[in-house]
Here is the input.
Amino acid sequence: MKKPELLVPSSSLEVLKEAVIFGADAVYIGGEAFGLRAKAKNFTKEEMKEGIEFAHEHGAKVHVTANILAHNDDLEGAEEYFKELKEMKPDALIIADPGMFSIARRICPEIDIHISTQANNTNYLTYLFWYEQGAKRVVSARELSLKEIKQIREKIPDDMEIESFIHGAMCISYSGRCLLSSFLAGRDANKGECTHPCRWKYSVMEEERPGEYFPVFENERGTYIFNSKDLCMIEHIPELIDAGIDSFKIEGRMKTALYVAAVARTYRKAIDDYLEDPKKYRDNIPWYKEEIAKCTYRQFTTGFYFGKPNEETQIYDTNTYVNEYVYLGLVEDVKEASGAKEENGAVCLARITQRNKFSVGDTVEIMKPDGRNVFTKVLSLITEDGEQVQSAPHPKQVLYAGLDAMADKYDLLRVKG
Here is the structure.
């Protein structure tokens, strides 16, 4: 049984490192231009170089997005961008536009090209077309069922790869090619500037029936629009593998390190458990579901995988996310107490760049890459200047947290909200 790749998003260098440490086989990132997440932090040239080196040192790959639908004015800059990428040696480029594809093939033919879901890849002839152009992989449209993907697998060469989204936000538009943001906010989603108007609150009211609100539907070829539940296939790893999907893709290039690490760790364990022993996987499903629910999410659906979604995949009464856990920071370094425990009982001092407020005396959770969650008490907080403080109220403040359980570099600290 072929082991699928776990492909995880990264919005920053910090998140890339956490994704790799917490189980990603590959990460996908965007530079400061030509990707479809202009509002994400994205990577500078220097950060991209460091991230690629870090991933390669840890046995992971890096895919770089260049998946805008380009206009004439974009093409000259794209030439220079691909020349820069050629020097940095990412493992793959994710491209949607044929013009961008032709530039990439000419400038860096040694780098694999993956065809983005933005290219509307819904049938095996489309896959074969891109294969003949030299593409290594095609990202399937989210509108495909597992049955359709399995049919595609049977019709394409063995060395051509299928990548499919298995977790994360669902876009209301066909393969994400949306015009709502352009129309309502003047920000083009197809050039990376989406303002997510599908998450805004809407209602339809007939003028003779004030106060009566109705859901909005597309026609019979589509599905319900606005405010979709999030995709989650953690309970369907066997079906995904059986369909012949080579790469399991997590959505979320604007997500936090906590979200990315938690999702990566859970799917890593689920995939490995199933390949080791299907019974072990089935027995651990409650743990997977519990851990996934600790991430920020919008209730879950299986999307199009088992047929077209219905009204049960939609959320009509709220546009808010479920967010049960608060991210405190990642452990950047650890000073272990030498010999006996320190006087206050701490066994280590964990250096973090604090992201949310917490205080001395709080019980927090150390989230470890191997699946363990270790509860620990915060016994002290010390600034970089050596000052003892009682709380951490300032975001991005560097602190040493005295903990009564051992933390390791790259662990995450979180607390239930």
Observations:
- The radius of gyration is 23 Å.
